[in-house]
Amino acid sequence: MQRLFVLGAQNDHRGDIILGMKPRNVTKTTLLLVLATSWAGFGCQNSEGELVLPDAVTEFLPASNDVWPESAGSIENRALASIARDVWDFRMRTSPTWATYLGDPRFHGDLPDNREIGGISRNKARSGFLGRIAGINEKNLNEQDALTLALLQRSLRDSIATEEMDMGAWNVSARSGPQVSFLTLASEQPVGTPKERAMLLQRWRRMGPFIRQASRNLRSAMDEGKISSATAIEKVLAQLDNLLHTPTHLSPLMEPASAGGTWADLKGGDNLASFAAEHLGDALRAEDLRRVNLHLQDGLRLAKGAPVLMPSDHDMLTPAVRGRFVADVWQILDNEVYPAFREYERTLRTEILPRCRPDGRPGILYTPDGKQAYQQRIESFTTLSSTAEELHELGLSETSRLRAELVALGRDLFGTTDMRALRAHMAADPALHYSSRDEIETVARDAVRRMEAALPTAFSRLPSTKVEVVRVPSHEEAFTSMAYYRGPTPDGSRPGRYYVNTFDPTTKPRWEAEVLAFHEAVPGHHLQIALAGELEGLPLVRSHGGIGAYVEGWGLYTETLADEMGLYSTPVDRLGMFSFDAWRSSRLVVDTGIHAMGWSRDRAIRFLEENTLADRHNIENEIDRYISWPGQALGYKVGQLEILALRAEAKAAQGAAFDLRAFHAVVLEDGPVTLPILRDKIEAWTERVLNPKAPLNPR
Predict the structure, then answer these.
(1) Do residues 518 and 447 make contact, with C-beta atoms less than 8 angstroms apart?
(2) CA angle 460-683-452, nearest 5°?
(3) Given pLDDT bands bounded at 50, 70 and 90, which one contains residue 475?
(4) In this structure, are 550 and 671 located in the same domain?
(5) pLDDT tens for residues 486-517?
(6) CA–CA separation, 97 vs 92, rounded Å?
(7) Which of 74, 154, 352, 353 lies deepest, with the highest CB count within 10 Å?
(8) Where are the alpha helices (DSSP H) in 226-309?
């Protein structure tokens, strides 16, 4: 059943026709009673005994106020609270995979609308929200409501501008796109109930049309002169080649259906009873294997040999239910998803790659309206109106300063005389690199635990949600960065996750392990993001606000904070801290160089090699990231420098009264904010410290 709704509407009367009543008058208890007493009319059992809700009933689900009962937080202004709730619900509806990640159960069967009309519809809704915001008298708002209004207004305007750029239609990347995002989504897709399994099948069926639309988008954008650079396309083609050569049953997209079971190969002509005896210790379990592996009923396939799923010992489903689910997913992958990926691969290889921009011109500068688009990206990611030239010069200055620090440390530690010699020494010493994947994970976990024990010395409030260290999935590890972080679900059912890249461990430098952990986990991203999610009264549109200069600036700031806390184990680990700082400073140079000054990919790579200690493989992945994500790399250093400047100014003004834990509390107390707003907050805090009679923040 197609779901019709008006974006931004305050009430969504789903189910009126079905039950003859309006949802606003129906409680959850009433709904459950109706379903329980009228099940014959609304539901049925499938052939395996699973209860399945038909479309008419699945439409009548709790609205956003039930899923997110406090999405507006403690906003006092009723009109603003209504807008905040509607914007949050709009974001869940239009970003259903993000909704799944956050634990919203309503959209597990949906994918984003990647058609042009989808973007037009989203921007129409955003403009409607801005119109409603314009009708609010700001003079009547308390301090926190005024802050919410300002941040919400900025976010909507920024989203409109980003949507109009429509980079997703042509800008392929080895870090995103369906060949990565769909495989990663599989690990987050819930399948614990019949309804959730039905929603997985619905979402998987929608992958084929989504991918085919992505192919059409590439062609349309190419006709407008918008096309990715050579290496970006070649890397995606490599990913697609690996994806398409992965047997269906071993695809990450099959993993939710196999649910921890293992696959073994049944050779052609082998006896299934003997196979069961060998692998399960009981020939009588051959019948269970037949129920789980419906493809074994195909005599021709069985004669040729076939993979056999042996369910996990802890499988909660019966063999028949498990088998039906596996067979359905297999059919979708074979008949819909894989063919769509093959079409996508052909489009890239035969139509897009021959007309791509060369690596000598990878920047957005070389696309229609590229200069204006890049300025918009600068303002979006830095929250400032700086020009590319200003940021470039700032990056050169900071890189020069940090390069001198690195050379001096190298001289003290290894007797090297310049960056070239230092890089050569670091790269050639096996003791400075890992020997195994397990070692990378262990070192990361140890760094996180040591920092967690030290956090109370610098922070007065810590998140209750924990962070865990996990490995980057195999389908993306060769093409992504050394590490990244993903936040917890708002309900705490999944902790924050610090992903470490264990690919090719002998090339991974040990000296970067601690600084990485401090940036991505604690006191960096996890502390800030998890804490924002736990702030009482904060509307969700703010606690989940992705303001790059604040979020990434905080992460970079905490790298040097860790040094002040004495958490780097050795001088070599401190060397990693300076290298990382130089790397973020270099980003200002290479990002603006690529997208505003016409730098080639090779020139950007050389600059990082000359000014950081990062290895060549990581440098190439990072440069390709900057090429495909214009402006994002700018927020780190800009945000760090502003936080450091605000701290220095507050300390100078407050003197002996300055309290580092209090400073951090003020920086973190309102969730992500723009840098100008952060400056206003810190200056107001200093005024209160110096003048205790000054008005307090209402929160």
Answers:
(1) yes
(2) 20
(3) confident
(4) no
(5) 999 988 889 999 999 999 999 999 999 999 99
(6) 8
(7) 352
(8) 230-244, 255-258, 272-280, 286-292, 299-304
Exposure pattern of 437-465 as b/e (b: 16+ CB <10 Å)? bebbbebbbebbebbbeebeebbeeebeb
- Kindly state whether residue 150 falls inside one of the protein's structural domains: no
The strand ranges marked E within 422-487 are 467-471, 483-486
Q: Residue 74 is encoded by which pair of tokens?
A: 């403690």
* 474 shares its domain with 567: yes
Give pTM, 2 decimals: 0.89
Name the residue among 646, 597, 600 with its Cα closest to residue 623: 600
How many domains are contained in the chain? 2
* 11 in a structural domain: no
Same domain, 497 and 627: yes
Of 325, 23, 72, the closest CA to residue 189 belongs to 325
Q: Look at residue 442 and tell me if it is in a domain.
A: yes
Taking the mean position of all CA atoms in its chain, how far away is CA 588? 22
How many Å is the maximal CA-CA distance in the chain? 87
Q: Within this chain, do residues 476 and 447 fall inside the same structural domain, yes or no?
A: yes
Using DSSP bridges, classify how beta strands 51-52 and 305-310 pair: parallel, antiparallel or unpaired: unpaired
Q: Which residues are registered as beta bridge partners of 433? A: 509
Give the pLDDT band of residue 32 (cuts 50, 70, 90): very low
- Hunting for tokens 């976010």 — which residue is that? 155
- CA neighbor of 549 nearest in space, from 682, 678, 638: 638
53 vs 231, more confident: 231
Domain that holds residue 675: 649-690
CB distance 87 to 541 below 8 Å: yes
Residues 501 and 544 in one domain: yes
Which of 47, 334, 80 lies closest to 194, judged by CA? 47
Comparing CA positions, the residue from 34, 149, 30, 53 lying closest to residue 106 is 53
The 3-class secondary structure across 276-300, one letter per residue, is: HHHHHCCHHHHHHHHHHCHHHHCHH
Distance CA 543, CA 529 (A): 8
Nearest 5°: phi and psi at 423? -60, -45
Strand-pairing partners, residue 266, are 306
Cis amide prior to 523 (ω within 30 degrees) = yes
Say whether pLDDT at 483 is over 80: yes
**Dist CA 345 CA 233 (whole Å):** 10
pLDDT digits (tens, 9 = 90+) for 40-84: 333 444 544 443 444 433 343 455 678 999 999 999 999 999 999
Let me know whether 442 and 531 are in one domain.
yes
- Is 60 exceeded by the pLDDT of residue 371? yes
Q: What are all long-range contacts of 599-607, with beta carbons under 8 Å and residues at least 24 apart?
A: 599/363, 600/359, 600/360, 600/361, 600/362, 601/229, 601/231, 601/359, 601/360, 601/362, 601/627, 602/359, 602/360
β-partners of residue 579 are: none
CA geometry: angle at 463 spanning 457 and 466, to 5°?
A: 105
pLDDT at 290 over 60: yes
- State the residue for tokens 């707003």: 677
Are residues 618 and 654 both part of a single domain? no
Q: How many C-alpha atoms does 382 have within 13 Å on its Cβ side?
A: 24
d(CA 493, CA 190): 12
Q: Is residue 496 part of a domain?
A: yes
